[in-house]
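Lab channel / #folding
Pinned by the channel admin:
"Please post every new chain as: sequence first, then the structure tokens as a reply. Keep commentary short and put observations after the output so the thread stays searchable."

First post following the new format, from NK:
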Amino acid sequence: MSSKAKRAEFFLNVLRNQGVPIDARTKILDLGCGAGRLVQAGRAQGYDFHGCGIGLRDAHNNADPALVEQGVLRDIDLDPYHLPFDDSTFDVVISDYVMEHVMDYPTTLRETHRVMKPGAAFLHIFPPRAMPVEPHVHVPLGTMLRQRWWLKTWALVGVRNEFQQKLSAEEACEANYRYLNGHTNYLTKRELREQFGRYYTDVRFVEDAFLRNSPRGRKIYPLTKVMPFLPDLYGTFMTRAAFGRRPEPASTQAATSYP
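Reply from TO:
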């Protein structure tokens, strides 16, 4: 099984752990799907995966042109922001290291709410605010400290990501400053609860299920028997796994009174 196939199965197993029924008829949206590799892998396993992202036709992303032409993979409209699917289309929405790039949570969550069926579930996996090293630029505490003096300090000692090897310290600092402040948004756990809670019910963090089902997590999951706080610790410093549901019709009044 390929790594993407394992990743797709991992997402589905975590959802099953939350009581979400998954079968070949379940319509699943991968939000921010990149080149659509997770979608391809899920479909190859017999699941009804779809994806949307930005720049699917760009050579950099190299999305499968057949899936683009079929409408399985679609570009997100940005002005105004609009997911390219009809209302109440999906049973499940997932994302894999995407939510840390969402700069406007209300608009994004309103749109995911719109394309989800009543009672549908979401599962978003993303890095937490207190992650020791920012995963994109590799700067320690870059999730919280993004001032130029901090970024310049680490650039001077040689910290670079794979795209910055030939940049000077000044250039790396400026590149990281623009990227972190313009393209990343690390919310606190309390802020995440507030944002998700405006549109969804049954909102919870499911790092316990993450550890139980992920290849790396399974190695440390047995420790939760003697360290029951381990999932919370993992969610604080390593990976967040956020779950929730679109309200059923009888409980939609509060969740659909958008500000």
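NK: The chain is about 35% helix and 20% strand.
TO: also worth noting, The chain has two domains: 3-129+186-255, 132-184.
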